[in-house]
């Protein structure tokens, strides 16, 4: 199965536009859009959404997400991957990284995996 992305609400909406310019077939949503958690959704609810929707989270939230992720796993939950965005990466470079991931990997490879991007 192809990777399906969910962008954290703290990331620029321009990132989604940049990714879709590279390949409009990529399944990428952002928190706050239709059929996603609304803006302001708490991390535990975002993690549950990720599990049910089979989406990989792209986030720069290194403050609250780690502890919520540990709690999610402790409760027996799973995620379809999580990418921590490195500080000061350009939107263009980040979009290229997501395109590369989408083109070269399958969603199942990222289950319960955490990774920093760019790699």
Automatic annotation (TrEMBL):
<dbReference type="InterPro" id="IPR041049">
    <property type="entry name" value="DUF5615"/>
</dbReference>
<dbReference type="Pfam" id="PF18480">
    <property type="entry name" value="DUF5615"/>
</dbReference>
<protein>
    <recommendedName>
        <fullName>DUF5615 domain-containing protein</fullName>
    </recommendedName>
</protein>
<feature type="domain" description="DUF5615">
    <location>
        <begin position="4"/>
        <end position="106"/>
    </location>
</feature>
